[in-house]
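catechol O-methyltransferase
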Amino acid sequence: GTAALIWNEIICEKITNFIMNQSKEQRILNFVLQNAVRGDPRSVMDTIDKYCSQKEWAMNVGDEKGLVLDKTVEEVNPSVALELGTYCGYSAVRIARLLKAGARLLTVEFNPEFAAIAKQIIEFAGVQDKVEILEGPSNEIIPQLKKKYEVDTLDFVFLDHWKDRYTPDTVLLQECNLLRKGSVLLADNVIFPGAPEFLKYIRSNSHFQCTNYSSHLEYMKVEDAMEKAVFLG
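Tokens:
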């Protein structure tokens, strides 16, 4: 798995970026604009999945683990959801298409280029009325959620950013009183690349009830999993 990632993410990608004078993320956006149906979230998701499984690997949640994400969002039926790690907007589209009228998704992205591409993909999918992209580091944005973004508590949190931020950001969510009894956290890539500190923290914490969903790394046969943690208050 590591060798495949190094090959895809570092060697192939850098060569292609140099030849085409654009980033992989820009190529994903162009493929969506040229091949997906405007205003159709499912078509946008399928088009990104097609590109990333057939042309260039990318770190979306993907189609297989996406079903776990869908099921969790449908079960929680959140009014306010938070995503940590927007990337190209794939999972934001995936979540937003399932939100009820009046619900909102706040999605946090540190990389300005990724945020700009995600904005275009989210608008193309037609879910921009439910999604707000917050640009900056998660540890700065989380403490601003209550006052600046008028969040009382979060019903659902999807962790899919830097794996070493999973634990400190979960602690920060608790310290900022952003979790209520029944709030659900869902973390991606807990096996590969892996988030062992997060699993240790969440599973040994009496405030959380955990469920593990075995799966595979997006667009690969490498073993991976998602971890769901329900906040018990």
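The mean pLDDT is 93.
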